[in-house]
Amino acid sequence: MSKPDRPTDPVTTVRATGLSLTQAVAVGVNTTSPAYSLAAILAPMALLVGYSTPVVLIVSFVPMALTSLAFMYLNRRDPDCGTTFSWVSRALGAKPGFIAGWTIAACGVLVLGSLSQTAVEYGFRTVGLVNLAENRLLVIGCAAALIMAMVVLSIVGSDWSARFQTLISFAQIGILLVFALGVGRVVLSEGLPEFTTAWINPLDRGVESLVSAMLLGVFAFWGWEAATNLAEECRRPTDAGKAGVLSTLILLGTYVLVAITVVMYLGRSDFYPVGESGLVMVDMSGVALGPLAVLVLLAVFISALASTQSTMVPGSRAMLSMARRGALPASLGRMHPRFKTPWVALMTTGVIAATWFVIVNLLSETAMLDTLSALGTLVAFYYSITGIACVVYYRRHVVGSLKGFILVGLGPLLGSLGLIIILIVGIQTLTTAANDGSGSRILGLAAPVAFAVFILILGLVAMGWRMLRAGGFFQSRPQVANAMQSPFVLPSERPIPAGGILVDCNHSLEFIIASIDAAGLDSLPAGTPVYLVAGIAPPELMGDEDRAVHDALIDDASQLFLHVQRYLKGIGITRTIPLYEDSDAANSLLLAAEQAQPTRTVSGHRA
């Protein structure tokens, strides 16, 4: 009998080319635009919560960190570039998945204009061309052109893009740390403020101030999950999930360090802004760095510039994944024949973003601000639904162990609930005219809320159109993770030592135990590995029926393995490694033997 070919595992296979973990982390860091985000939120956050600003940043980080667990563990078993779209579709169904993917793409479109505008303005300011930075029509035209230039850069090659992103991420984080040291030097020379409980009590100024400040904190952290969209472009697919978690940790450390020094400085003026730009770090740069103040302008410029490109990743990859699954037209899934990038999705994202930016800026000077205010509700929505999808998809593993309960159950669920609360409070806050961008109303709704509702209505219309044109995707059913789709690394996915005993588990439990007794395994030396193998290939079925039978065979095998492991433990054998082989019973032994290279095989009553 010939040995069957072992299928390639997309989760554990390491590619010869692609993005490294460091490069994926750089994308996650840059998509948040840390220098710009931090410069923009520190002054208003300090006004809201005072000296507890660093603590509030940490509190804001908690739901993001808990949600990042969902991104990491969902990515482990479904390393799809569509991330939330694919995961929500798998766990909750096609319709919620479509809306989630639509929201990701919409967020990218909405924010690109603001980022490119900031890059252009501060690019001019960095080189001393302040008059050009204040020319509104020139800035609008240059910003739209910058969006399209970044589209071209993204299409031409991910290798160049990754080097660009990595360089800029190190540069802006470095400048932020230099700025923090500069402010710290000034504070030390003028005397440290008195330490009080206000430093560690985020509720010192009330619940409303805390929640409003947390909304700013969530905005500052938004974007790290772009790294998880790179699963199909990383050398190791699981690095994408790890990069998302590492991105949040790097951002947290940088943000808190800068915030501590800034609030020490601002505390002398009761936390009121020290300048007119609206970016506290820009206004403080002269005091903190003296002749090197231009570095802060440079950091804001390169931060927005890098984010203009990296922000295209989530939206374009969501379109690509949706197109491949039939949720969007197949043309959006076309890859460039030379550069192997989703050029149609990238071009579509760029054209729509540039067009939207130009139109809303020509209609109103505050329309873009209202658009950005709407982002908070959309971001909180798709982050929270990702956490819920994690709990639902891994529900069997949530109740199977304490580790599963905490990491893929309680953690993501608490993160989602926190974001939902922030979402609700954020909408309530935006309904007050004084709290939204322009104070304007559209059909009786605050402009940011109206924009968010408009985006969701467009998504529902697009979903209805696709259901009529190509409804195959929408007929897929929600799934639940089986034993092979554990969120944690399976024993068979770790390096397997050669030698040991191979036990054929393609029989009834009684038959297997009788075979073990006949083989005399109770006399094995301690630590001898015992491999339990079962074939899980279903008969030749199709579609959902094939998947259902396949899942049932895996469930049966996992229950059988559990009973066999308990029996083996009872006779002193503790090192067991279950092997699920995607083949029939006979070939499963050949595949397992090729992998484990056992010294003995227990099959039937023969040792």
Automatic annotation (TrEMBL):
It is found in: Cell membrane. Gene3D superfamilies: Amino acid/polyamine transporter I. Keywords: Cell membrane, Membrane, Transmembrane, Transmembrane helix. GO terms for molecular function: transmembrane transporter activity. Pfam families: AA_permease_2. InterPro entries: AA/rel_permease1, APC_superfamily. The keyword Hydrolase does not apply. GO terms for cellular component: plasma membrane. Its main location: membrane. It is a multi-pass membrane protein. The chain crosses the membrane at residues 55-75, 96-117, 137-156, 168-187, 207-224, 245-267, 287-307, 343-363, 375-394, 406-430, 442-465. It comes from freshwater metagenome. The keyword Protease does not apply. This is Unannotated protein.
